[in-house]
Amino acid sequence: MKFETGATIFEEGSPANRFFLILTGRVKLSSEMADRNVIPIQTLGPGDDLGWSWLFPPYSMHFSARALTPTTTIFFYGTRLREQCEQDHELGYQLMKRIAEVATQSLQATQRRLIQYIDKNIPEQSFRT
After folding, report:
1. Cis bond before residue 40 (omega within 30° of 0)
2. What pLDDT does 122 receive?
3. Is residue 2's pLDDT more than 90?
4. Within 10 A of 126 (CB to CB), how many other CB atoms are there?
5. How far is CA 2 from CA 23, 45, 70, in A?
6. Which of 26, 65, 67, 90 is most exposed, with minimal Cβ within 10 Å?
7. Which of 28, 39, 104 lies closest to 65 in space, CA to CA?
8. Pairing of β 2-3 and β 71-77
9. pLDDT per residue over 100-122, tens digit each?
């Protein structure tokens, strides 16, 4: 699939039924806070996996993704991949290892961004009891 600069690849909360491998371009992952501020989480590029939520219930996207530059991806249906993983446990194991690494990197990036967001937007005295 090809995405032009600024194109939405998926939205936070949407069904997670697609999985992408980025071939060219750059993609920004972001999350919307309760106050409607959008926090950039991570920038992905060639060789990165995009959309790992297809593997874990409730199968909904945890972030939004937009193309920062023209982007080309290889696209897979997540539901079909899950079925294939059930049939071929070695494939499932190998995908689980790869997706676990991607998810861990994404969680670490999210933690860094949230700390920056809190430091920037919430006065220190708000944390005192």
Report:
1. no
2. 56
3. yes
4. 8
5. 10, 14, 7
6. 90
7. 28
8. antiparallel
9. 888 888 888 888 877 877 777 65
d(CA 112, CA 117): 9
Closest of 75, 77, 12 to residue 49, by C-alpha: 75
**Is residue 3 within 8 Å of residue 25, measured between CB atoms?**
yes
What pTM, to 2 d.p., does this model score?
0.78
Instruction: Write the single-letter amino acid at 94.
Output: Q
The position carrying tokens 């926090």 is 39
pLDDT at 93 (0 to 100):
93
Tokens of 96: 């689980």
Closest CA to 17 of 62, 67, 79: 79
User: How many other C-beta atoms are found inside a 10 Å radius of the C-beta of residue 21?
Assistant: 15
Measured in residues, the chain has a length of 129
Domains along the chain? 2-120 (2.60.120.10)
